[in-house]
Amino acid sequence: MTQRILVIKLAALGDFVQAFGPFAAIRRHHPDAEITLLTTRLFATLAADSPWFDRVWSDGRPNWWNLAAVLHLARRLRGAGFDRVYDLQTSGRSSRYRMFVGRRAAWSGIARGASHPDTNPRRDHLHTVDRQHGQLIAAGITEFPEPDLGWLDSDVSAFGLPPCFTLLLPGASAERPGKRWPAGRFGALAGRLDMPSVVCGIASEAPLAEEIRRLAPQTIDLTGRTDLRQLAAVARRASLAIGNDSGPTHLAAAIGCPTVALFGSESDPALCAPRGPTVTILRRQPISELSVDEVLQSVGG
């Protein structure tokens, strides 16, 4: 009988990218299982394109006041008959879903009564990747191969990208402005680099690109024009990526693009820095204290 497995990951893009390794490890450990990912609409298409899941459910974060949506999710989780759950979100919300799934299923996470709990008292002081590895080791998964991200690509010929360029990622959470290096600094940096720059981000970050282009008019503005696979494809073709602590910066690093990640006081790189084969971390508190010269020096400029 085919084993039915549920993986829960609801969070922001950077956290989702840092779960690529655990996703791959779970699939490797359960090659013949039917694996369902519970996530949100933002990541559903990306997850469905990956080789790790048989099904993707995008209704993983209903508003608690929306009783109809909560009940629909509860019935869906209970009716699926999952044998095992890997809760990679490990939040209060996702832990409550254990009641929906039913206590028959084996549970990896921090939910009360979990059959395979992550009991490391220092888990909240570990980097996200290390914390997830510890959780999976406690559940019997001990091999963590580098995930194959060859599928994470797209045709970006319509963007007219130059042969060599620097990818600039000036955005970050709008609710945490202290994570953003000033757009003017990105513009000054673009003007001093020895190759053209391309700016990516969501549509609401277009004013950041406008400020960069004011200082470096040759910069190509792709804000609001890329989905996640296209963003990854642009990063694949970039010679270098420079960005704030944001999901796109994590994605660029994961793809293997040489990446410089800029941190301030609102996030700790020891806990959440992007990981990849060629990642450089620069941190100043506040982030506005980071100079253009320092960033240039980090890339050999």
Written overview of the protein:
The strands form 2 sheets. The protein has a 6-stranded parallel β-sheet with strand order 3-2-1-4-5-6, with helices on both faces. Strands 9-8-7-10-11-12 form a 6-stranded parallel β-sheet, with helices on both faces. The chain has helices at 13-17, 20-29, 41-49, 67-79, 92-101, 128-138, 183-192, 206-215, 228-237, 247-255, 269-272, 292-298, and strands spanning 4-8, 34-38, 55-57, 84-87, 106-109, 116-117, 166-169, 197-199, 220-221, 240-244, 259-263, 279-283. The protein has 301 residues and is an alpha/beta fold. Helices cover 36% and strands 16% of the residues. It has 2 domains: 4-138, Rossmann fold (3-Layer(aba) Sandwich); 157-298, 3-Layer(aba) Sandwich (Rossmann fold). Helix 7 (183-192) packs across helix 8, helix 7 (183-192) crosses helix 12 and helix 9 crosses helix 10 (247-255). The longest helix is centred in the N-terminal third of the chain and has 13 residues, at 67-79. The protein is built from 12 helices and 12 strands. The model has no long low-confidence stretch (mean pLDDT 97).
